[in-house]
Amino acid sequence: MKIKLTLLFLITLLISCKNDTKKKIETLNNQIQKVETQKTFEFEKFKISKGKIGDIKIGMNIIEAEKELNELTKKKAEAYDFGYGGGGKAFIYSIQNEPILALIPHRDTAEILALIAISHKLKTDNGLNPNSNIIDILKRYPKMEVSQDLMTEHEYMYDENKKWSFVFLTDESNRIGEYKDIEEPTKPKRIATKMDYIEIK
Predict the structure, then answer these.
(1) What is the DSSP string of 20-54?
(2) For the segment 157-173, what is each residue's pLDDT rounded down to a tens digit?
C-alpha cells in the first residue's frame, strides 16, 4: 500500500512539474516574441508630423518608403476602404497580424498620395494616437468640429494646418455630430468616441 501511495505521489509530482515547465516555456516564448517585436519595429522612429510618418513622406516613391518597413508584412487593399474613390489601391503594413499603417499611392503611379496611421503605438507630435478619443482631441483643438464624409458617410475632425484627418468609422446608428446641414461641420456630442485612424495628406 505504501509503495502504491509513493508511486501515485511521484506520478502526480511529475505531471505537476511538466505542466509548470510548459507554462514557463510558454511565458518565456511570449516574452521573447514581445522583445523581438519591439526590436524589429521601433515605433518611436515613426512620429506622425505634417506630411509624414517618420521618414515616410507624402509625394515619396512607395518603393523607397517600403525600405523603412522591411519588418512589416504587406497586404493589398482598396483605396476606397480609406475613403478614396477611383479604383485605386492601398497597401496595409502589419506586424504579427496587427495593422500598423497604410500607404495610398496615386492611381497607376508609385507616388504616395496619403498616409494612414492605424496602430495606437504611433504618436503625433502633439501626443495623439489613432486610438485617442474626442476628449483628447479637444484638449489640443478646443474649437475643432466634426464633419461627415459625403462619400463614405463616416465622420472626421480636421487639422487644417497639418492636414490631418482624425477619422471615425461611424454610421447612422452612432453619429458623433447632429447635422442640420450635412455639408456643415458641427460640435461633437459623443466626446468619448475613439478615432479609428489618422489620415495624413
Answers:
(1) HHHHHHHHHHHHHHHHHHHHH--GGG--EETTEET
(2) 999 999 999 999 999 99
| CA–CA distance, 93 with 189 (Å, rounded to integer) | 33
Question: pLDDT digit string (tens) for 34-44?
Answer: 444 344 789 99
Full-model pTM: 0.80
DSSP labels for the chain? -HHHHHHHHHHHHHHHHHHHHHHHHHHHHHHHHHHHHHHH--GGG--EETTEETTEETT-BHHHHGGGGTTSEEEEEEGGGGT--SS-EEEEEEETTEEEEEEEEPTTSSBEEEEEE--TT--BTTS--TT-BHHHHHHH-TT--EEE-TTT--EEEEETTTTEEEEE---TTS-SS--SSTTS-B--S-TTPBPSEEEE-
Q: Where are the domains of the chain?
A: 1-40, 45-200
pLDDT of res. 178: 95
CATH no., domain 45-200: 2.60.460.10
